[in-house]
Amino acid sequence: VLYASIEEGARGTITERIDRLEVGHPRMYVSNNLPADLSAYDFVITDSVSRGRLDLEELRALIGNNPDTSFIFIFHVTKAGLPRGTTEFQHEVDVLVQVEDGVAVANGRFGPGEMGVRFA
To answer: pLDDT (tens digit, 9 = 90+) per residue, 50-60?
Structure first.
């Protein structure tokens, strides 16, 4: 697993949070960016797409060039709950999950769902 911590970087707060929440794993790597070669990773988490300045074509290329890799793309929303920037990315993903006040609400081609989220 690669956690591309573009927003915070692979330092201080993100590594402290991973340790505190005990969500680390010996095969989880944290980096400041998305490396050009993702072939070593089964899963790639990009936090965040807007900070990484990925556009729609770059996102499509990441997915297309890495067919054996699963991606989680993190986007930000405005205070009104609307996607920050364009909404064109929403049509490229299998499921959208919005987390607010400890509740994750998912909607996508597999239907809606909801679950509580633990924040420590």
So the answer is: 777 788 888 88
CA distance 2 to 46: 8
pTM above 0.85, yes or no: no
Banded pLDDT at 23 (limits 50, 70, 90)? confident
DSSP per position, the chain: -EEEETTT-SSHHHHHHHHHTT---TT-EEESS--S--TT-SEEEEE-TTTTT--HHHHHHHHHH-TT-EEEEE--B-TTSPBSS-SGGGGGSSEEEEEETTEEEEEETT--EEEE----
As to burial, measured by CB atoms within 10 angstroms (0-12 exposed, 13-18 middle, 19+ buried), residue 4 is buried
User: What separation in angstroms does the CA of 106 have from each of 4, 9, 59, 77, 96?
Assistant: 22, 27, 21, 15, 5
* Amino acid letter, residue 72: I
